[in-house]
Amino acid sequence: QSVLTQPPSVSEAPRQRVTISCSGSSSNIGDNAVNWYQQLPGKAPKLLIYYDDLLPSGVSDRFSGSKSGTSASLAISGLQSEDEADYYCAAWDDSLNGWVFGGGTKLTVL
Amino acid sequence: EVQLVESGGGLVKPGGSLRLSCAASGFTFSTYSMNWVRQAPGKGLEWVSSISSSSSYIYYADSVKGRFTISRDNAKNSLYLQMNSLRAEDTAVYYCARDSRWLGNRYFDYWGQGTLVTVSS
Question: Which of B18, B83, B97 is nearest to B50 (CA)?
């Protein structure tokens, strides 16, 4: 049972838009920034979004992040087959004094 | 180019010990906090431990507290994870990850390729 809650899977057709939700609490998302990581099959995780909605250099602007209260979302527009991956949200938790991750969402591009 | 290379994984019996290493290059290691994150087979990511740049601040997940010890050697640009009293549920790929900051908020901007630890009799 992960501290942050994500849907286990989402799917959408190529060129469409999909969103992945991440729900937490006041001690994590409500009080700290949310980061998103992409993990391609068989690869190490890669930073996708940091500080709620900022894109690291080199990350496509088809990816975007947002946060409201104790929830955050990752949106991917113009879906491509190469976007098929697992996506994780993460935040520092002030109560646990540690990082917490969502359970991960597997994206399938139909 | 930032590189993080983990080593030290392998097969160990329950109750045994293992020491993981992470060799860092391409950045000033002594100025960054570092982390260990693990991923059990077919499961999600789980943060294990964090250590500040000068080792002044150390944090552990409850699941490993009292059994694992994180440390670093800034002169050798290396991060370590000493794992004792290993259990089957510690079986996972262990990643080291660099901890960066932006306006006081932190994130893991670089990850190693991971090293597999298997705890089994």
Answer: B97
d(CA B50, CA A99) in angstroms, rounded, equals 9
3-class secondary structure per residue, chain A: CCCEECCCEEEECCCCCEEEEEECCCCCCCCCCCEEEEECCCCCCEEEEECCCECCCCCCCCEEEEEECCEEEEEECCCCHHHCEEEEEEEEECCCCEEEEECCEEEEEC
Among chain A residues, the shortest Cα distance to B47 is held by: A99
pLDDT at B76 over 90: yes
A50/B50 CB distance under 8 A:
no
Q: Which residue has the tokens 């991917």?
A: A76
Question: Which residue blocks in B3-68 are alpha helix, DSSP H?
Answer: none
Distance from CA of A33 to the nearest CA of B (A): 6
Other C-beta atoms lying within 10 Å of the C-beta of residue A92: 23
Q: Is the pLDDT of residue B62 over 90?
A: yes
> pLDDT confidence of A66, banded at 50, 70, 90?
very high
Q: Which residues of B touch A33 (CB under 8 A)?
A: 105-107
Of B7, B13, B6, nearest in space to B84 by CA? B13
Q: Tell me the average pLDDT across B106-113.
A: 97
